[in-house]
Design goal:
By secondary structure, the protein is α/β, with parallel strands linked by helices. It contains 5 helices and 6 strands; from the N terminus they run ββααββαβαβα. It has a single domain, classed as Leucine Aminopeptidase, subunit E, domain 1 (3-Layer(aba) Sandwich). 41% of the residues lie in helices and 17% in strands. Strands 1-6-5-2-4-3 form a 6-stranded mixed β-sheet, with helices on both faces. It is globular. It starts with 5 loop residues before the first strand and ends with a helix.
């Protein structure tokens, strides 16, 4: 079942014991603030050496490096939309693409457990509840057709963010 493979939790993505964590990066893949900064600090300096070799990463696309000092084997770097740079429809399309292309990368490298942060909801200012609906829908749509992924964790950094995701999951599934 799709529903049972989506877990919503509050936590720090850098400590997740999963095959792959997703990084909310920027087009340069050179590191940054927010969750990107936290992942680079926890992984150590080899992460940026590898990610720069894969740069640039277009908005909505995803590229994979090793996890280095992280518990995760892989880091899937994706770039969400900067909310105010797009129409609402285009921003939604790009955000869904970031989730789904990240999951395609997970399948490609054989990751069975994947953790996501709430992409674009920090510096990129995507409205939290809208982003949560898109995240949950995009992941569920992908999992419906892909059985190799056993668990997708949506790792929220605050209880408010987790509540938005829980509500989105509940509403989506009726
Ligand atoms: N674990 C889980 N979630 C976290 C963590 C963490 N350790 N730290 C922050 N968050 P943001 P964006 C949450 O700004 O909006 C960077 O500079 C945070 O509370 O990290 O996609 C990049 O280089 C928020 O809910 O990413 C880009 O330039 C969510 O992660 C730009 O920011 C995303 O916030 C990307 O902006």
């Amino acid at each position: 079942m799709t529903k049972q493979r989506i877990k919503i939790m509050v936590g720090d993505i850098t400590t997740q014991n999963v095959d792959a964590i997703v990084n909310a990066a920027n087009n340069s893949l050179a590191g940054g603030g927010g969750v990107d900064g936290a992942i680079h600090r926890a992984a150590g300096p080899n992460l940026v050496k590898e990610s720069l070799l894969l740069a640039p990463c277009q908005t909505g696309e995803a590229k994979t490096t090793k996890g280095y000092a992280l518990p995760a084997v892989w880091v899937i770097h994706t770039v969400g939309p900067i909310y105010h740079r797009h129409s609402p429809d285009k921003a939604a399309e790009l955000l869904a693409a970031a989730y789904q292309n990240s999951l395609r990368e997970a399948v490609r490298v054989g990751a069975k457990t994947v953790a996501f942060p709430a992409i674009s909801t920090g510096v990129y200012a995507y409205p939290r509840e809208e982003a949560a609906k898109i995240a949950v829908q995009a992941v569920a749509d992908f999992l419906r057709h892909e059985t190799s992924i056993e668990e997708v964790r949506l790792v929220c950094f605050s209880e408010d963010s987790a509540e938005s995701h829980r509500a989105a999951l509940k509403n989506m599934l009726g």
